[in-house]
Structure formats: C-alpha cells, structure tokens
C-alpha cells in the first residue's frame, strides 16, 4: 500500500531516480520524451533505474502524445510491455481513450495483459474523457488499479474540480494529483482530504526538463506533502 502522504516524482534516467529518492520521493514514474508529455522508456533505461534505487517504479506505457492508440501502435506497445515485464517491471501507468472520449477498454485490457502489473495508475486520460465519472466507473472495475493521476481538468490543477469529484456516487477514485501542480495547491488540496501528489519539472533544477532532478527541491516538496 502507498504511504498516506505520497510524493511521486517523474524520473527520466538513473541520475534523476537517485536524486529523487535522496530527496524523499516515495515512488517514481518512469518516462522518456517529456516533449511528448511522457512516453514509454526503453528496457535499458528501466533496468538502469531499477538497479539504482529501491522504491516502487511505475513505468509509463504510452506510444505518443495523446490518448488514442492505433492497432499497429497497440501491437508495438504490447510487445514493449512484455519486454519490460520480463525485465522486472511490476507497476505501470497507462490509459487510452476512443475518438469519442470514452475509455478504450479493449486497448487498456490488451496492454494490461501484456504488462501484467501488480498495481497500476490510470493516468491523465481521465481529464480528457468525455465524462470523467463514467470513465472512472469503467476503469475502477479492472484489477490492480490503485491510483488515478489527475489535475481535475484538462487545463491543469483545478481544486474545485477535484473537490467535486470526491463526491462521485460510485466511489471516489484513489486520486494522485499532478499536472501543473504548484506549491500553493497543496494546502487547499490537503484540506479536502487529498494527500497523494505527483511532480515533474517543479523538482528539477530551474524547473526545466532539460536539467536533472534537484535533491533540495524534492526535499522541499516532501515537507510540503507531509
């Protein structure tokens, strides 16, 4: 089970991972190519990070910017997911939508079958779904999902939007708040009971994706989250 106050940090390589863990990150999300909003890392990258740190690693399974996936892309992603699983991947991050904005359950189930994660996050696809509540109702029935990465809106962190979602009649998802998260968001989010947070560029030197994770900034966010 994740800790009650979770700090999840995006890592692009082993150096990022080591710095994030030194600063107090509980869990890492592994991606590559943030210019495309985070895609699946290589098997070699995953292996180097797994050898460098001993915290849970959630590996992004996504082939391009956006949430739709073509049959060819799906086949390629499933093959890569199988390779990552064989290399030791235990946890994943994924989510797919149809052109109409509904959850693409066929694609989701295919990649889950290939990746075989023990636990996984449905990522910010929920913020772009035609109806977020219906999307969660579909996803929440799948085995192993224990987190939903969301900002509360497609435009970025929306405290009111997140608060409203806590009252969904079929049960509030296990939210992890991320996607433009800033320091000033933490207090009002914690006040309504949200305690799991996801950060990326905010904990890098100069808040710049081209620069590495800053141990001091991760430690600062650790204090904020706690």
Could you report the average pLDDT, rounded to the nearest whole number?
95
DSSP strand tally: 8
Largest sheet: 8 strands, parallel
- Which residues form runs of ≥5 with pLDDT under 50? none
Strand percentage: 15-25%
Helix coverage percent: 25-40%
Write up this protein.
The protein has helices at residues 14-23, 43-52, 71-86, 105-115, 125-128, 132-139, 159-165, 183-191, 215-225; strands spanning 6-11, 27-30, 57-60, 91-94, 119-122, 145-150, 175-177, 196-199. By secondary structure, it is an alpha/beta fold. Strands 7-6-5-4-3-2-1-8 form an eight-stranded parallel β-sheet. The protein is globular and about 45 Å long. The mean pLDDT is 95.
Question: What is this structure, in a nutshell?
Answer:
The protein is an alpha/beta fold.
Task: Give descriptors for this structure.
alpha/beta, 8-stranded parallel beta sheet, 9 helices, 8 strands
Write the layout of secondary structure elements.
Blueprint (H helix, E strand, L loop, with lengths): L5 E6 L2 H10 L3 E4 L12 H10 L4 E4 L10 H16 L4 E4 L10 H11 L3 E4 L2 H4 L3 H8 L5 E6 L8 H7 L9 E3 L5 H9 L4 E4 L15 H11 L1
Parallel strand pairs: 1-2, 1-8, 2-3, 3-4, 4-5, 5-6, 6-7
Helix pairs in contact: 1-2, 1-9, 3-4
């Amino acid at each position: 089970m994740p800790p009650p106050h979770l700090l999840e940090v995006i890592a692009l390589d082993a150096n990022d991972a080591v710095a994030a863990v030194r600063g107090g990150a509980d869990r890492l999300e592994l991606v590559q190519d943030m210019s495309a909003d985070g895609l699946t890392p290589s098997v070699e990258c995953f292996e180097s990070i797994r050898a460098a740190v001993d915290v849970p690693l959630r590996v992004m399974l996504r082939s391009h910017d956006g949430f739709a996936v073509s049959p060819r892309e799906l086949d390629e992603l499933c093959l890569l997911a199988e390779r990552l699983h064989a290399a030791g991947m235990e946890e994943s991050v994924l989510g797919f939508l149809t052109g109409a904005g509904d959850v693409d359950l066929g694609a989701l189930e295919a990649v889950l079958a290939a990746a075989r994660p023990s636990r996984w996050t449905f990522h910010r696809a929920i913020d772009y779904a035609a109806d977020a509540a219906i999307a969660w109702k579909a996803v929440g029935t799948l085995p192993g999902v224990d987190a939903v990465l969301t900002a509360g809106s497609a435009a970025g962190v929306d405290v009111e939007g997140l608060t409203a979602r806590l009252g969904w009649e079929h049960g509030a998802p296990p939210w992890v708040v991320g996607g433009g998260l800033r320091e000033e968001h933490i207090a009002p989010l914690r006040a309504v009971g949200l305690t799991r947070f996801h950060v990326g560029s905010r904990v890098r030197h100069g808040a710049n994706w081209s620069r590495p994770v800053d141990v001091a900034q991760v430690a600062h966010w650790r204090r904020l989250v706690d």
